[in-house]
Design goal:
- By secondary structure, the chain is α+β, with helices and mostly antiparallel strands.
- About 30% of the residues lie in helices and about 20% in strands.
- It is built from 4 helices and 5 strands.
- Strand 4 and strand 5 form a beta hairpin.
- Helix 2 packs across helix 3 (about 70-80).
- The radius of gyration is 15 Å and the shape is globular.
Length: about 120
């Protein structure tokens, strides 16, 4: 995983910025989201991800963030209630879609040019 994401300064006025842990988790979700359509292996089966999606399990996020599955699930529900994500769960995993991903992660001419690959259309 390489590249970068955009973070607008306005985020400092968003409720998520007021809680350091939740802000860290939000940024982590953004960093884990796919920056282009792709196919990934999920427990031995191929799954398709769109740009702005990630597939995870509650167990994975719980271990990664060092919190209980219940606390992680409550956080994801909070993001859903604020229309920041959509979740689709099955027995194997949860697919999280970052709402409005393209609107604030689009690559534009204002993209920083330092260390940018020659072809940058499909990166954050």
């Amino acid at each position: 995983m390489s590249g970068w994401i955009k973070i607008y300064r306005e985020i400092t006025r968003h409720w998520i910025f007021q809680d350091a842990e939740k802000f860290k988790w939000w940024i982590d979700l953004l960093l884990m989201a796919s920056h282009e359509d792709c196919r990934v292996m999920v427990k031995g089966e191929l799954a398709s991800l769109k740009r702005g999606q990630l597939t995870v399990s509650l167990s994975f996020l719980s271990a990664r963030w060092g919190r209980s599955k219940e606390k992680v699930l409550n956080f994801l529900r909070l993001l859903e209630s604020d229309h920041m994500i959509e979740r689709n769960s099955d027995r194997k995993s949860t697919t999280i879609t970052i709402c409005n991903y393209d609107s604030y992660q689009e690559v534009s001419e204002q993209t920083p040019t330092a260390n940018r690959p020659q072809t940058y259309r499909n990166i954050f």
